[in-house]
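Re-run with default settings, no changes from the original entry. Doing this only to confirm the output is reproducible before filing.
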Amino acid sequence: MATRAIPPFPRCLNNALRLGSRLLQPGKKVSRTNKLQSQYCLRLRLGEIFDLQDRVAVTIVGAIAPKLEQAEIERVRYKPTDSLDAYDFYMRGMASLYRWSGDSLSEALKLFYKAIELDPHFAPAYGMAAWCYIRRLAEGAVIDRAKEGPETERLGRQAARLGKDDALALCAGGFALVTTMLGSA
């Protein structure tokens, strides 16, 4: 969760400058009851004012660097797939899906299946393939209801099972499952 800095509050006292700043959690209002994430204060003599920029920069970097490093570690832990070819087919499928035509929907479905073939653990590809079937249903373009309903459910379940930490896979898979449970697919 990113932090935000409250603008510095300068004070002059006895020929010295005191510059303070507070870092808060996002979405928090400034109040006396807030739990501060960090609070910093720099004290300088007025003759040292030119060192201020360097000291402020070092202080801020020192406060943010550990949290930034942890966020980067978390980001790297999540990789949608190790197969660049599967990811390429998935992205091409997404491009086809958003062209909003019957032909592009069929093309997207083929591309998602190709991504699944290349990486059977690629949860978003399962979710978006299920989404293609849901779109066919919504557009009245179901080709074979007896096959597409169970396939939509299978893809939705795989997306949910494989993509426990993937919002897109869970959303598309969950929507597919709800649609099939309600008997719409």
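The chain has a mean pLDDT of 75. The longest helix spans residues 52-77.
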